[in-house]
Structure formats: C-alpha cells, structure tokens
Write a structure and sequence with these properties.
globular, single chain, 3-stranded antiparallel β-sheet, alpha/beta, binds fructose -6-phosphate, Rossmann fold, 245 residues
Length: 245
C-alpha cells in the first residue's frame, strides 16, 4: 500500500508500478487490463507521457476492459469501448483492433451470456492479463462486481446497484440514463491477472479502501479480494487513506 500526498503523485507512482509490470511481461506483446471511470485518467496520462518519452511501447500490446454497460447504442460516447478508444488507444498507441471490451449489445440473456463466455475465452487465448489497472467504487465494487459478488466469479451480466448508478450519473444526462446492467469481468477473472494496480483518490473512497485493505476478505466488499493476490499494489492519496489504521 503506497500513500502519497496528491492524486497527481498517485498517477505518477502507479505509472511506475505499471511500467515495471509490463517490462516483466513475457510473450509477443504485453496484455494490459483497463479500468474506466475517473480514477485511472491521470495514470493513463502518465503512461501516455512514457510513450512519448520512448519508455513504453504498446504497439504490440493487447488491452482488455474490465467491464461494459449493457444496452447503450454502439458508438455512444459513454460506452467503455468509446471511452477507452479516447483515453487509451489514441494517446497510448494501443491498436484499436487489439482493444477488447465485453460485448454489452446483446438483446437477450442468451446473447449476453455467450458474450461473457467469449470474453473469458479471449483473455485466455491472449495468455492472461499481465497488469490489471483497477479503480474502486465507493461501495467497494471492483470492476462492476457489486457487493455480494462471488469471490470466484467469472465474466457475467450484473445488475448495477443504485449507488453505482447514482455515482456514474455524472457521465450521463441524469441517473435514469445510466444503464441498469453491465457485463463485467468476475472477481476470479481479475484475480487471474499477474499484477494488480489499484488507484484511489479523494475522501469518498476512504471507507471502501479501509474495508478493502484492512477489513475481512468478504463478498460484502468485493475489492477485499486484493488481499488474496500475491502481487497487488494499492496507490492512494492521503484523502483516500484516512480510514486506514
Ligand atoms: C470501471 C470500473 C469501476 C470503477 C469504479 C470507480 O471500469 O470497473 O470499478 O473503477 O466505479 O470509478 P471512478 O474512478 O469513476 O470513481
């Protein structure tokens, strides 16, 4: 657990942890697991700086998103595919054809279940994720694994909690426009990544961070699975770390 004064420091330090993990990656190109939301934006900007400085080359890399909303039209600016095309592919030089995002466009349960299974297959085919970047929900969710999620879950359809829909309403015209469901990597899927890097800033994350890092390993705080992982780093600013003992 690394605690730093500001969110800018968090972005810089987390970028170093990611770079180190990518440098250790074996295989043809590194496999990067990508979170969306506000938390990793500074980290992505730092990684873009490393690309410009010649310290990072993602031209042969593959990216896997953590999750995707169900039911948004293709090309909607808040689909996580579009967000990652903007925030990661363009600035970091990750080829769009090697960006994988769960397919949330299915209209039936069967289609969505098949898309989730296909996503697991693609991750396995790529050799697994080398470095998984993570944020944490104010309710302790990881990916969109809301409280109560099985600790061994795989990619699947989940209903978003009212808290998460409320928190994410800032990206939409209002809370009612936030989709009700998503396809998310499971906690078991996340745990399979070889390195986990969680970034969190600000006081709204303090309670979730304390529960995740110092509470019991429990489905009531999905991010507590980090305690189970042999190579997990949480990079926090002081505001997010205030409830740690
Ligand atoms: C996003 C994701 C979520 C976010 C979390 C925090 O892909 O899986 O777990 O990391 O909701 O969101 P922000 O960073 O916007 O506070």
């Amino acid at each position: 657990v690394l605690v730093l004064p500001t969110s800018a420091d968090v972005a810089r330090r987390a970028a170093e942890v990611v770079l180190e993990g990518l440098a250790a990656a074996r295989g043809a190109g590194p496999v990067l697991g990508l979170a969306t939301g506000s938390s990793p934006l500074g980290l992505y900007a730092e990684l873009a700086g490393a690309v410009r400085a010649g310290r990072l080359d993602l031209s042969a890399a593959t990216g896997f998103a953590l999750d995707e909303y169900v039911g948004l039209p293709a090309g909607h600016p808040q689909t996580y595919r579009e967000v990652l095309l903007r925030e990661v592919c363009a600035p970091l030089g990750l080829a769009p054809e090697r960006l994988h995002v769960p397919d949330g466009s299915g209209r039936t349960e069967q289609e969505l279940v098949a898309a989730a299974a296909e996503y697991e297959r693609l991750i396995t085919e790529a050799g697994g994720v080398d470095v998984q970047i993570l944020g944490i929900g104010a309710n302790g969710h990881l990916g969109f694994n809301e409280p109560g999620s099985s600790l061994s879950s795989r990619t699947r359809v989940k209903r978003l909690s009212d808290r998460t829909r409320h928190d994410n309403a800032r990206f939409f015209d209002g809370p009612d426009d936030v989709p009700t469901h998503c396809v998310t990597q499971g906690l078991g899927t996340v745990l399979d990544a070889r390195r986990l890097v969680l970034v969190a800033s600000g006081p709204t994350k303090a309670a979730a961070i304390a529960a995740a890092l110092e509470g019991p390993l429990s489905a009531s705080c999905p991010a507590s699975v980090l305690q189970w992982h042999p190579d997990a780093t949480a990079v926090l600013d002081e505001a997010a770390a205030t409830q740690l003992r």
